[in-house]
Amino acid sequence: MKNFYSCVDTLIPSPLSEQHLIIKNKAQKESGAITAYASEEYRAIASQPWIFQKLSETKDLDGVVFFTANQFNHGNNFNLKLFNKILNNNYEIHFAREDLSFSKKNINTKIIDYLFSYSLVIHKNENELFDMLENE
Question: Are 135 and 64 in contact, with CB atoms under 8 Å apart?
């Protein structure tokens, strides 16, 4: 059985108990269980400085299950540096709400492209989008 770290999203209005349940179900779907819990401190959420440290300090973990992929978009863009760091250190990444999974051996580039595109859209200045529509 695999051991996973649970990482809730503190910025969304979803009860933590609900997030933990959804994360637990994703861990079970990936033949594992949640053996450690954490979340980023809301003031540092944009850079996610503690996740990898917590992963590396906790013994016998196979990866982390985030509540949502959007947790990688709380900064100015998709946190590819953290995403790659987790994978390159042989941890799995799972996103419970979207039911997505990644490992160093299993990277679906179409899904990665989608995550990047989504990140670009949510970080786009709305006024620029309106200007584009008006100029068509």
Answer: no
Amino acid present at 6: S
| Residue 20 phi, psi dihedral angles, 5° rounding | -60, -40
Instruction: Give the pLDDT confidence of 41-68 residue by residue, as tens digits.
Output: 666 666 677 888 888 999 999 999 999 9
Question: Which residues have a Cβ under 8 Å from the Cβ of 14 and sit 6 or more positions away?
Answer: 67
Give this prediction's pTM: 0.83
- Written as six digits, the tokens of 40 are 């980023």
Burial of 5 (0-12, 13-18, 19+ CB in 10 A): buried
State whether the Cα torsion 125-130-135-136 is positive or negative: positive
Amino acid (1-letter code) at residue 4 = F
| Domain at 90, CATH number | 3.40.50.1390
Name the residue range of residue 50's domain. Answer: 2-134
Give the Å distances, CA to CA, from 85 to 13, 88, 133: 28, 5, 38
Q: Domain tally for the chain?
A: 1
